C-alpha cells in the first residue's frame, strides 16, 4: 500500500512492539472471564479478494492485524465493491469436549462465518465481540473456517475516525478481523457472562447461565475465602477493604466454579459519584473529590493501525502517560480489545470512554460554526436503521465494559457528530448503568440532560467557570503540534492547532497553557481536563509521543511537577469554605 512505503510520502515507521519478546496476541484475550481450555486462532490465515464474481488469492495474512496494516503481510486497502474472504484450517485438541465456542474480538464491519461450508453465524458492528456456538458444525480431524468480510464504510453503523480519503483529523480505514479469534470448549451448562458491581465494602457477582450451585473463591492478601451460593447472584462483604485508585490500583482476584466450568476473574472496590463540595458539584472517586488529569487517546499505531503489533503496545502507552503524571485517558471514538482495559485496571489508569460515532460529519456544522460560538439550532437527520444500530452498539458497549473498574465515565456524542435524541439516549443508558458518569454531548450542542457540563476549547483562551449543579469537564483542549524529523508518518503535511518546531518550545508552551489557563479554571470549579493527545496519529503531530512510539517529546520530571501543581490547585479549591 503506497501510504506505508518508506520511499514515498508516507512512512512505515517501525515501533518497539514489532520485536517485543514473549508477548503476542495468542494469549487468552478475555482477562475477566478466563478459562484454561482454549485454542488461539491468531496467526497465518489465507486471504482472498472477491470482486465482480471473481476471487483472487492475496496470500497469507497475520490475524488479528487488519489487511491495511503493514505488519499484516497484505498492506492494501479494501476498495468499494470488494470483499475479503479469510480462511484457515484447524484441528480441535483431543481433550476438547462439551460445547465448542468460536469467539471474535471484532470484525469490521460485517462478517459472515462458515465452518466446513456451513454458515454458523453473521455479525454487524466493527468494534464489538461476538460468539458463535459451532458444536453442531465442527468435526473430528481438520476443519475449514471461512470469514467473509464486507466493509463499505457504512455510515449507518459506528465507524469512528476512518475515512477512505484520509488526512488531517481522519485516519486510514481498516477492515476485516482486527482483534483476536479463539476457540474454547465448555460444559453443556456453562457461564455465559459475569456482571460485577462493587461498592467500597462489598461486591455483587451475577452470572448468566450455568448450574444452580456455584462457589466463589476470593484470593485475598490474608488467604483464600470460599463462598458457596445458589442461583445467579451473590454479594460478598470484604473485610479490610482496599479501594482501587490510580495511585493504588488494587485488584481482587477470584475463581468462580460451576461444576466443571472454572473461570478466573477479578474485581476492584471503587465507586464514582457526583457530590456537592463547598457549593460545587464535583466528580468523586470512592467518595472523595478527584481531579482527572487526562489525555485524548485515539488508539492508533503505526504498525497495526487499529492495534499494536503486540499487547505490550497498550501497556507502554498507559505506563508512559502515568509516568508523565496523568491519571486518565479519554478513549476517543473507538472501542479497544479487552487487553487495553485490563492494562488500565492493573496499572491504574482511569478511562473516559467514548461511544463510536455514526452518521455523516460536517466540518461547517459540527466544528467551524460551534468553534466561533454558533451552537444552537443545528440538527442532523437520522435514519431508523442508524438509530437502531447506534442503540444496539451503545448498549453492547455498556455490557462489555461494565466490569472494568478503570471505566468511570462515558461520552455519548462528540461535537454533534451523528447526534440525535441525546436526552432520550442519556436516560436509557444512565438507567442501564447508573454507576458511571454520563456526558451526553461532549463539546457543544448540549440538550437538557447530562451529568456534566462538557466543553471543548481550541484556538482561544480557556475561560471557564462551573455551574454549581453540574461538574465542569474540559473534555478537549490544546492540540499543540511538534513534528519530530525521522519519526513522522507524513513527510509533507502536518496537522495540529498550533505548531512548534522544537521539543523545548512545545513543552514550554504546554506548561504555560496549564499554568495560565487550566489552573485558573480549576479555581473556577473545573474537575477534569483532557489534553489533545497521547500520540501523533498519521498527519497529526499533536501527541506527547511520536506515532512510532520512539520519541517522548516532553520531560518526565517537568510533567510530574506540573501534575502536582494541578492537584494542589484542586485540593485548595476543595478546601475553600463556601459562603
Quick gist of this model?
The chain is an alpha/beta fold. It has helices at residues 312-323, 338-347, 363-371, 384-401, 422-432, 503-523, 556-575, and strands spanning 38-40, 43-51, 54-63, 83-91, 99-104, 107-108, 110-115, 118-124, 130-133, 142-150, 176-177, 181-186, 191-198, 202-209, 213-220, 223-230, 233-237, 252-258, 261-267, 272-277, 280-285, 288-289, 292-297, 328-331, 350-354, 407-414, 437-442, 453-457, 472-478, 480-482, 498-500, 526-532.
List key phrases describing it.
single chain; 579 residues; alpha/beta; Jelly Rolls; Immunoglobulin-like; TIM Barrel; eight-stranded parallel sheet; six-stranded antiparallel sheet; 7 helices; 33% strand; globular; disordered N terminus
Report the end-to-end length measured between terminal Cα atoms.
64 Å
Give a quick account of the main beta sheet: strands, pairing sense, barrel closure: 8 strands, parallel
The CATH architecture assignment of the largest domain turns out to be Alpha-Beta Barrel
Q: Please provide the count of β strands.
A: 32
Mean pLDDT: 93
CATH superfamily of the largest domain: Glycosidases
In helices, the fraction of residues equals 10-25%
Q: Which strand order do you get reading across the main beta sheet?
A: 27-26-25-24-23-32-29-28
**Structure class:** alpha/beta
Per the principal axes of the C-alpha atoms, what is the gross shape? globular
Percent of sequence in beta strands = 25-35%
Number of domains: 3
